[in-house]
TrEMBL record:
Family matches, as Pfam families: 3-dmu-9_3-mt (PF06983)
Name the UniProt record assigns to this protein: VOC family protein
Record domain PhnB-like: where: 4-128
Source taxon at top rank: Bacteria
Length: 134
């Protein structure tokens, strides 16, 4: 049975710094496995060849691309995180938006009690939401 896993490709050796930020920011997040480039391999020695990790219990993969590309992340593909408390959402929004770009500031947009959309300093797009009462 096929299994789909979101994959984030970082440039400039930023994968480890991004993972450190995500693990420090989100609960139930951490490294599952990592394979690093060795001496003489295509990528920078010690950078991430592939890593499996969780953010809020969901599994992802990432790598440091050893090849320069004319593209990076786009906000049209984002990680959507639902929160149970506004203070946790606000705190996370503040951490992730530092050095990044706010696409939609925190507000009540009608589809969520509190919602914000941002791109973090690594270019990864996040939608943070406090759902309407269920």
């Amino acid at each position: 049975m096929p299994h789909a896993t979101p994959f984030l490709m970082f440039q400039g050796g930023n994968a480890q710094a991004a993972l450190d930020l995500y693990f420090a920011t989100f609960p139930d997040s951490g490294l599952l496995s990592v394979d690093r480039y060795g001496k003489g391999e295509l990528g920078t020695e010690g950078s991430i060849k592939t890593a499996r990790f969780t953010v809020c219990g969901s599994e992802f993969m990432c790598s440091d691309s050893p090849i320069e590309h004319a593209f990076s992340f786009t906000p049209s593909s984002s990680i959507f995180v639902e929160f149970e408390a506004a203070d946790a959402l606000d705190s996370t929004f503040g951490v992730l938006s530092k050095g990044g770009e706010v696409l939609m500031p925190l507000d009540d947009y009608g589809f969520s009690r509190r919602f914000g959309w941002l791109t973090d300093r690594f270019g990864v797009s996040w939608q943070l939401s406090l759902p309407l009462a269920r």
